Amino acid sequence: MIPRTLLRNARRRLGILGYAQSGVAAVEFALSLPLLLIAGLYGVETANLAVTHMRISQIAMQIADDASRIGDQSALQNKKVYESDINDLLLGGQLQGGGLNVLGNGRVIISSLEVVPSTTNQYIHWQRCKGVLNVSSAYGSQGTGTAGGLNGMGPAGNIVTANTGDAVMFVEITYNYQPIVGTMFATSRTISTTASFNVRDSRDLSQIYQLDASNPSPVASCSTYTAS
User: Which helix (H) or strand (E) covers residue 212, if one does?
Assistant: First the structure.
């Protein structure tokens, strides 16, 4: 049999516990912590996706801008573009991306949009690619438009065209985005962006040259899928 004194003490302590408030804040925080954690992770994932979109777009713009400027400057002839120049552009995009590893997780495609001599046909004169992702240009491969059929390059409603005797450097980047904390708050997705710039100075549009024919620089062929 439980002593009456013990029962009275137990009832008195339970009564005091009913008025106790010292642990209320801790309990509320513990109950709300999962919701705060979910909201925080969702915010981090959303912000990272937005920043990645912006960085990929900036890389495409930078490559296109640099491609419009490259060439061997000479007062006696139009600028010549070399394979080594294009390789440097692609490497520069990789370095600019930093931890994104654009070439290891995506594909960069540079196209020279021009007008077929003695015609009004827009065509892709040359095209260079780098990256492991197995994708092709959304507007065709090198030589597309030679016989007509290419109105220009770019998304519908925002198509760019080249002028006769001039060229447009058109860059496409396709990138596989991977979420930071798994697929609970964001899914793996493909980010695609484009950028273009008109060639800045008079350029020799006849071909892409080699600095040293006896020791040619590698060609960033669109039939290979490597990051190196």
Answer: none
Contact indicator for 130, 137 with CB cutoff of 8 Å: no
E strand segments, the chain = 106-115, 122-130, 168-177, 189-198
**C-beta separation of 121 from 150 below 8 A:** yes
How distant is the alpha carbon of residue 103 from its chain centre?
Answer: 10
Three-state DSSP class for residue 100: helix
Radius of gyration of the chain (CA): 30
pLDDT tens sequence for the chain (228 residues): 556 676 666 666 656 655 555 555 666 666 676 777 777 777 888 888 999 999 999 999 999 999 999 876 666 678 899 999 999 999 999 999 988 999 999 999 999 999 999 999 999 999 999 999 999 999 999 999 999 999 999 998 899 999 999 999 999 999 999 988 777 767 889 999 999 999 988 889 999 999 998 999 999 999 999 998
* Spacing of C-alpha 118 from chain mean position: 37
Tell me the DSSP string of 148-205. Answer: S----BSSTT--B-PPTT--EEEEEEEEEE--SSTTSSS--EEEEEEEEEE-SS-B--
